[in-house]
Amino acid sequence: MKEPLELSRPWRRLFPSPLVLVLLLFVALTALRAYGYFGSDILHGPPIMLGFVLMWFVPLVFLTRYGRKQIGFGRKLSWKWNAIGILLGAAAAGFCYLLGLLLYGKSDQNWFVSVAYAFQTDERIALLPRHIAYIAFTVPAIVASPVGEEIFFRGVTEQANRDRMSPRAAACFAAALFALAHLIHHGIYRGFEGIEVMPVSGAIWFVLMFATSLVFSFVRQKGSSIWTAIFAHAAFNLVMNTTIFYSLMVTHPQTS
Fold it and tell me: What is the pTM of this model?
């Protein structure tokens, strides 16, 4: 539907174009994520989790009730497309896992290994039984991240462009921002000489995240509700964490 995203009145006065607001929020939220990864040896997880939770509140703070409906809230759930979305999300994660193993094995060039390293920044994780560590990381991964990112990227970001772009172009724009943010998880890292880049594996990861984002957009459009994309994203993260904890983690938590 070619209509602008409906911001609440105070924000509409400050930002006649919703796209400007979206880009400012993207920069702020991505900077918070980057700080969680690169800027603090003490506070690694909290800034990242805070960024996801802040995304939850973007529709409540910035959108009208109709704006929230525009991004897919308050719509009837399609259980058919919810199920398809879950299967596609799981399949996308499985493909990322297998491709990473095929190309890079369990080296640090493997994108899921990079995520595993991030999980292990807290040395206390190695002291936990594997199943406890798995639950501790997977529950937030299937709740905080899917809800926050789907609201922001598939909901707010896509709809902010619907008055000026085709649905496909709007989905590609959101996918590009989504993939760019995920370079923080793999592709850009803090080495001994500062911030460094993995050009080849990082580029492949960008393409994988771009394509995965389009899968989420597809099921969100077919299912009409933002929850369809959230379920697909949660399935992706569930499979990703399962492969990390039971296949890729280099220093395994205790098995008992």
Answer: 0.93
